[in-house]
Amino acid sequence: MPSEILNEKHDDLDKADIFSLGVAMYEPIRGSPLPEEGPQTLNLKKGKLPLLPGHSLQLQNLLKAMLDPNPVCRPSAKELVENLMFHRVLKNAWA
What is the pLDDT of residues 15-47, one digit of tens each? Predict the structure, then answer.
């Protein structure tokens, strides 16, 4: 869950959903589930993503934006569906 939800700030629920979608995309791209706690999880909540070898910088930047700790900085759902990289991710996920 994004930090704002854990801190009971529910002003930007749509952006909390973007964070959750980013995590849901990140795990299979990473190739393993994230631990529920620990340094990897804390880094993720801080917006610090390790490089994902074999994946484009464009994809990694999209994930980083979706997982930004500041909900205002995360893309909107509209911005995601208009992003060509998101179309490629979805196409590969359904292939």
Answer: 888 988 898 888 888 888 877 778 887 888 788
Read off the CATH number of the domain in which 19 is found: 1.10.510.10
Q: Is 53 exposed, middle or buried (0-12, 13-18, 19+ CB in 10 A)?
A: exposed
71 close to 2: Cβ distance less than 8 angstroms: yes
Total domains present in the chain: 1
Say how far apart CA 95 and CA 77 lie, in whole Å.
Answer: 22
- Which pair of structure tokens corresponds to residue 33? 């589930």
Structure tokens at 70: 């500041």
* Two tokens, residue 79: 């911005």
